[in-house]
Amino acid sequence: MDLEAAATPNPTESPAPKAPVLRRRVVVLSLLSLATGVAVTCWFEQVRYERFSGFLQARSRTVVSVREARVAEILVAPGKIVMAGEPIVRLKDSVFEQDYEAKQRKVESLEIQLSQSQARLEVELEMRRREILDRIFDAKLKAAEVSRKQGHSFPGFGSTKKGGWEKSAQSVGRNRPAAGDRHSITPASAVVPAAATTDDAASQSPQTELDLCLQHIEELERINRELPEKISRMMGVDLARAHLEHAKAELAQLVTQKRELTLVADASGMVGVFHKDVGDHVAPYEPIVQLLDEEQPYLVMQIPSTRVSDFPPGTLVDLKFPGCAAGKGRVVEIPPQTSSLPVDGAVSETKIAVHVDPVGRLWPNLPFGSIVEVRRRR
After folding, report:
1. In this structure, are 109 and 85 located in the same domain?
2. Closest of 286, 293, 273 to residue 74, by C-alpha
3. Mind listing the pLDDT tens digit for each residue in 132-146?
4. What are phi and psi of 159, to 5 degrees?
5. Which pLDDT does position 104 carry in this prediction?
6. Domain residues for 102?
7. Whole-angstrom distance between the N-terminal and C-terminal Cα of the chain?
8. pLDDT of 295
9. Is residue 88 located within the same domain as residue 114?
10. Does residue 107 share a domain with residue 60?
């Protein structure tokens, strides 16, 4: 009885080894379902979209030198945001520096020469002016003496103007008897014609001498007025001043050219990678660095040249940026020439760089040159 009871299994007990097997089967089936779903999704994506590679770019301005020089100093680091007018690179031109220093020395030398010439001019002018003033004074004394001989006061003695002397001369002329008044003299005191002629000559001689004195004074005063200009030309002051002005004009041009040795940003932007390092030679208009406009990014998409008809301007494309960020773009430009040509009749397909602009929300802030996946519905 005991043996039969022991041999009879308990119907309420379940087989323990079957539970782990079932769990394993469930896990395996779940993984297979997930893998199948992922595979189907990927296959659907592959069938639904075609993919191309694009490179994130930005509109840029190239910083160049207008003259041949060497890079002396780089003032900003790549990636820095600069404002318009901010210095970026300083160049050095040894030949220009020598010319600039020589012109500075020449200007300084001409300034010294001009100062010396002006000093000599002042001394010479003072001596000549004193001499002329003495001659004017002597001429005035002589004119006054002639006036006294006629028995008239000379009110214009203190004046060197022509008006004073002429008024005195006119007063002397008015005091002489007119030709018609001779006939009004009493017949008893009538004078013979010869005596009258002698008296007229005697009265006209002092007047002629006075006129000569006045003319001499006017001539001396004219010389005195023109003396500074004549002495300046004689001493070479005008020529020295002209040479100095010409040298200053040339120096001003060199100063303008010297400003060209410091390259500045013509607009705000991000400093790109420098193509030149300190000490490198720079040819005229050779690119040194680019300023990237981070506010206007675009994409350069490489497509086969045989597919150019599938991407007319206005075509919308989906973008997948690094980090799984999504975006959209629109084809705006197709270049008229492929980026590379087949060599020796090779059958390899050439590429065309298609320009894609942003559409919709802003693109993520990524380093320029990053690879972006471009997707287009089939």
Report:
1. no
2. 273
3. 888 888 878 877 887
4. -110, 145
5. 92
6. 97-176+196-251
7. 80
8. 81
9. no
10. no
Q: Round to whole Å and give the CA distance between 108 and 124.
A: 25
Same domain, 244 and 108: yes
Are residues 221 and 119 part of one domain?
yes
Asked if residue 58 and residue 154 are part of one domain, the reply reads no
Do the domain assignments include residue 112?
A: yes
Report yes or no on whether pTM surpasses 0.70. no
Please indicate, yes or no, whether residues 208 and 337 belong to a single structural domain of this protein: no
Owner of token pair 């395996």: 28
Number of domains into which the chain is organized: 2
Q: Can you list the residues of the chain whose pLDDT is less than 70?
A: 1-19, 38-48, 150-207, 337-349, 378
Which residue shows structure tokens 């001596």? 127
Torsion of CA 265, 266, 271, 273, to 10 degrees: -90
E-strand spans in the chain?
49-64, 69-74, 81-82, 87-92, 262-264, 269-271, 281-282, 287-304, 316-321, 325-333, 351-359, 371-377
**How high is the pLDDT of residue 164?**
41
- Residue 38 belongs to some domain of the structure: no
DSSP 8-state symbol, 237: H
- CA torsion sign, 218 to 220 to 222 to 224? negative
